[in-house]
Amino acid sequence: MNVRFDSTLGAARASVASLVALSLVLGLAPFASAQVRGSASSSSSKARKMTEDQRASHVLNRLAFGARPGDAERVRKLGVEKYIEQQLHPELIDDAAAEARLTSLEVLKMSNGELLAKYPQPNFLLKQMQREGKLPSDLKDLRDNRKTPADAAAANTTNKQLDANASMSASGAQPNAQAATNPSANAQGQTPNPLYPNAQTPVAVDPNRAEYRQAVAEFYREHGLQQPQKVTAELQASRIMRAVYSERQLQEVMVDFWTNHFNVYAPKGADRWFLVSYDRDVIRPHAFGNFKDLLVATAESPAMLFYLDNFQSVSPTANQNQRRAAAARFNQNPMLNNALGVRRDRMPQQPGQMPVPQRQKRGINENYARELMELHTLGVDGGYTQKDVQEVARCFTGWTIIDPRGAANYAGFVDEARTGTFYFNPRLHDDGEKLVLGHKIPAGGGINDGMMVLDILAHHPSTAKFIATKLSRKFVSDNPTPELVGRVAAAYMKSNGDIRETLRAIFTSPEFNSPENYRAKIKTPFELAVSAVRALGGDTNGAPPIHQWIGRMGEPLYQYQAPTGYPDTAEHWVNTGALLERINFALALVSNRIPGTHVDLSRFGADTSKGTTADKSRVIDEFAAVIMQGDISPKTKASLLKQLDEVATNPQESASASMPASNMSATGAAKMNAATDTQANAMDAPAGGRRGLRGQLAANNNNNAPASEIARIAALLLGSPEFQRQ
Percent of the chain having pLDDT more than 90? Predict the structure, then answer.
């Protein structure tokens, strides 16, 4: 394939920014108002039907992460209905090829205990070793000599100022007040940072930091240990690779859906280690099963118990004699106390020791009870009260985790197989009578109290409506009609909460197959990244570089702190910053600047060597046929050709013209969503002297290698409204 290169990558990036921002504005802005029209326009669309090509594209965009080259033709030959039914039964689909790509990700096969043992937190591991006298002396010295930033700043300031004042007093000089108030000026002769005058440099804070980290890394290597960051990185890689390569596409879509519905935040404590089993043993096996089974699995999951703090929920009215007896029985093993949920309120104080603050007594924690009803089942308007929250919290006291951080396992008190597993501790449970949503839960039920609550919630009409609404929003439109939600909720209730039957009600509905809902949803960053790799027939190992791009676009996996999970509606993803990062991702992908991810554009056989408009038009059509199954509007194509011609005829002017462009203001962003014809002007409107979209793209150019016109065309199509929507 002959490829013509332009002389300036900055000009190419500027033209891409200009076109994609404008086309996204024109293509995505009317989208919001179209969603509001909802049911008003749905009746008029009943007379129209999607073509067979559109239906194939539609199911590949909704039930899968987009089409790979050749997928649309295969679906057409198989038949849309047969494809849907096939995807509803992933257990019948051979997925050995995709699973083979995951064999190098060792964390996927490990238990919570194994992960905590092999990927320990350095500080935690060293504290345990020091407590047991196993810490090497050289490493112990380095650890003891380390200082926190606050300690170092305080010590630096106090000690140096005392020394200086003593010296000055002896000589009759006055103390330096500025030195006392600006520790960064005192730290080893460091020059103060004018932006952060009180900040400490790493060396000033901890001169042994580099040596300490090197010693810890060496200790890890010698003992066959690895850093805990690898656990999350490999889990994220597995999600990306499965979404790209799996033949069980609907299962991956549902894993993504349920992972957000039952969200867990990886950076919170032990959840970094627990999320592997959460994905493998909780979400995946139950993605198409009965909702109650999925609900029970999440309730017993160490990841959820830790994330919403239920593993610490203890009844204040539990039998005190039993608790005292348990404490006495395990008095000699404090680590085992913690592992099994038994803690002494206060450790004995040794003579001469500073007073140790008394640990706050644990009680009932309502976090899980509240999110269970508001986010997992009934919904915020599901008819429960604060009293119900309190009663549900009582039902789940004693649902805890054995050795949640691996301390007892490391000390040899708990075996690795039990570490980090679910455990019901009857000593900590409130065994009194409860009343939940009008249902009486008898006293003395133990763990069955929680099971009864889950059964009540799973079969509640409000849960049926809530789950039906979320699934309809996921697969049909941001604002599903009440009629659709009602039918899907009825299918849920009739099937006793069968997820597969609930989905089938959606996929066979008139709304799902309506032209009104064709390309009516905006792809999330995860969906966009995966669909782009699939559309170009690319390869990826799911390594951190591509996940970092997903994060830059706004959706790092397992990194959403709120229990709601990532939103699934357009208004969250359509904004100026998000559009800019999507543009940058498309450029990086087609230019093969994402390590571990590769696309081969030559396979498409395109040729723009003549440089004529007709030649470019043909190439656009060829790419669009593969990337978007030929679904490109005349307006989008005209915009593409215009931008390509402008860059080809005057690249230097295009590049220089983009430099003074200013960032879109908040008003400009609002106009973008309002869908007017003034968006192009808004894009260049001044906003505090900052660079605009085009200027930022040109300024971000750290690679002076020439960009091919083929790559620009591919990037433009990935950034087009048609590809951004599904």
Answer: 54
